[in-house]
Amino acid sequence: MLGPGEMPPRADVRPPWTEADFRVSGEDKGELDTPGLAENTRINRDSTIRAFQEWCTWQDPPRVAHPCITAMYTAYGLHLVRRGRAKDFKPDTVRQYMSRIWNWQPEDMRSDPSRVRRKIRLWHRRERRPTGRSTGRPRSPSSTCSSAWPSATSPRTSANATRSCWSWPTAISTAAPS
Fold it and tell me: What's the CA gap between 81 and 90, in Å, rounded?
């Protein structure tokens, strides 16, 4: 990345690397070749990738799964969101699937995941919202208290029961009998 007034590096100026800078020891190579994933993680990743590859081949015309472009990644993500809304998946499951596919892509060719993530986030918010509420804001303590609960002035409660109604279990358990 270049700042204001900076020129790109010249092609004929190279760092003083030697062949040794590009080599690792045999021990390091063996360590890198050993899979660093738990078996269940590897199985889940492979299953997700296989499902994505199959979906790509079912498209008309068939699409390239690896490396995939942003349009392909987004189309598959929206496909999973639609299936999720039909109760096949939960938002967190789709988020995990899309993360596995994104990480499977070559680092320098990864798709832009922002649009799919936004759709999953909106879907997740709608799924979490209880019925009958129009906003995502929490209710005030006074609107959640039941009139059947003893009031702070009731002889059955102690002075610490004047706290919010969310602390009633504590207030009732610590109240002295009258």
Answer: 9
Contact partners, residue 149, CB within 8 Å, separation at least 6? 165, 168
List helix spans (H) across 15-167.
26-33, 39-58, 70-85, 91-104, 114-128, 141-144
Tokens of 74: 């987004």
Q: Which helix (H) or strand (E) holds 170?
A: helix 168-174
Task: Check: pTM over 0.70? Answer yes or no.
Answer: no
* Cβ proximity of 176 and 158 under 8 Å: yes
Which tokens go with 54? 């199959």
pLDDT tens profile 84-122: 989 888 999 999 999 999 999 998 999 899 999 999 999
Whole-number Å distance between alpha carbons of 153 and 56: 67
Q: With 60 as the cut, is the pLDDT of residue 167 above it?
A: no
Separation between Cα atoms, residue 86 and residue 89, nearest integer Å: 8
